Request: fold
Amino acid sequence: MTMNGWILPAIVALVLWGIVGILQKLGSTRLGANALLLWVTAGYIAMLPVVLWRSGSWAASVDALFLGVVAGSVNGLGTWLLFRSLEHGAKASVAVPLTALYPVVTVVLAFVFLAERLSLREWLGVALAVCGGALLSYEGEPPVIQE
Reply:
């Protein structure tokens, strides 16, 4: 897929995930983390016919299936923990962008396990993302209102 072919789906995903952040906060406070994870999973299952239609096949090796199940389990655990943080009072405007910094972890793991290398400019981007996450997640003492 060329840049022209991937940019539109990426932008739509960005917008959809922005909407999801609000839905996750609303759902976690109204349903709780456990029930929300169940219903989010139902939403994933509802997408399966679209995926099957687009791919045309479910055929995969045992290794690929294993990796898919492990990736799904790790993703589900991360999603549940985000829901728990929202359920316990985290602001969506802080918790969702903070957890969206997961590519920083991916970069480090890809460096260690896949021998992938980044340029100086790309490492600078990672450092700025970490700084942004630190700035987003810092919550000082609430201001004291004097009467």
